[in-house]
Amino acid sequence: MEKDDNITKEGRDNFNSTAELTSNPGFQSSLSITSKTDEKLYNPFEHRNLEHPNTVFGSILHLLKACLGSGILAMPAAFKNCGLIAGSIGTLLAGLVCIHTIHIFVKASQNICIDAKKPSMSFAETCGAVFTYGPKSVQSWGGFVKTLVDYSMALTYISVLCVYIVFIGSSFKEVLDVALPEYQLSIQMYCFMTLPLLLIICQIRNLKYLVPFSAIANIMILVVFAITMYYMFVDLPPLSEREMVADISQWPLFLGNTVIFAMEGIGVVMPVENEMANPQKFLGCPGVLNISMVIVIILYAIFGFFGYLQFGDDVKGSITLNLPQNSIIAKSATLLMAVVIFLSFALQFYVPMEMITRLLKKRKSDSYENVIQIAIRVTIVTITVAIAAAFPNLELVISFVGAVFFSTLGLFIPAVVDTVYHWDRGLGKFNYILWKNAVIAVVSIIALVSGAYVSIVGMIDEFSGDHDIGLLNNTLSYT
């Protein structure tokens, strides 16, 4: 018995010696090579068991719909704060920064899935995991970071949903009050009238089944864009009548408006990537991300440049407010945009529900899961509609929240996540990753401050009765 123990101890010592040798960089045994190879064998894409995967085309449609909201109609007002030349260059730079921040975040998510051996991660899970598997000094922050980002994302998109409802109600009220003057209803009534349809569309739980809605919404928004562009290109004034470069003191307003609106789709990025049939096609060239964002940048630049060129300093927060109000075609554009926002509701609703669904999976029992899902969705949508109806000017407050969260979620957090991920893995030559991300963080802070400033100005204007300065207020104030 004692002899066997000695043999066991000797074998254990030999194993320990081998382990010590293989940990030495100067000695690579077959054991260490096999172990390292095994570590690299885990491919997150191969472990994604999706019941309803999205195609490349469907993923592009989702990203386009998420990024091409009402914000693009505010680009002419953004150009007013920067000028034609500065605005064009600024839109290109802002778009490239947005593409880069999304790219580095998705890449970090895909890489950290390998370390965590998980097939996919949400936006918040990625943030938490990067800290958990990062430098030892920040590993304990993983849970806190994940929770903070989770609730920030949910709060942001629930706020956006409230704005959507106000947008829909205000748009229909403006058109129907003229068409049916004997049946004039309040905004609150129009908001509540959207409730039954919203309850139905928000029961859709798979992004694949939302593709038709995104496709229809994209077609409609193209019609809206076509109508708007028709009025934009009619009798264009000469370039000399417009500012090429506006006063530099106004540039922060352009930056805040452009970056914040461009980041509208940041919360949809990870759900779209996670549910792709071929997620390796999300990044790269051309890739889903590059194709979608290039289209977004081009459309933003066109609307901003020619919208400001056409209407000059008289351009309002939403260019649709500059269209002839006595034109049936212009009115139809207003209604179509309201329908587009309605069809976008379920896609934006997917973001907070993704977090709630993950929390539900932690339940020990799956009993009544379907009933609970339906009840939660009905409750959230009903509360959202009630808040929007109770505070029809809620967009002024929510625009402040959106400015803070979108600039933070879209720029600051990806820069921090990328820095933490590379901290122990190498920050590149001359630590260029650190310096590059520091610049992005500074830009995000500027966007945050300038966006918050625009919202506060809008609030002041609301109390003073001036509805033509606050950007988001103009975008949504159709009453």
Automatic annotation (TrEMBL):
Keyword Transmembrane annotated: yes
Positions of region (Disordered): 1-31
Listed InterPro entries: AA_transpt_TM
Residues that span the membrane, as ranges: 56-79, 85-106, 154-172, 184-202, 209-231, 251-270, 282-308, 328-351, 371-391, 397-417, 438-460
Membrane topology: Multi-pass membrane protein
Taxonomic superkingdom: Eukaryota
Annotated signal peptide: none
Biased amino acid composition, Polar residues: 14-31
Keywords attached to this entry: Membrane, Transmembrane, Transmembrane helix
Domain Amino acid transporter transmembrane: 54-456
PANTHER family: AMINO ACID TRANSPORTER, GH04538P
Name under which the protein is recorded: Proton-coupled amino acid transporter-like protein CG1139
Organism annotation: Galleria mellonella (Greater wax moth)
Gene: LOC113523514
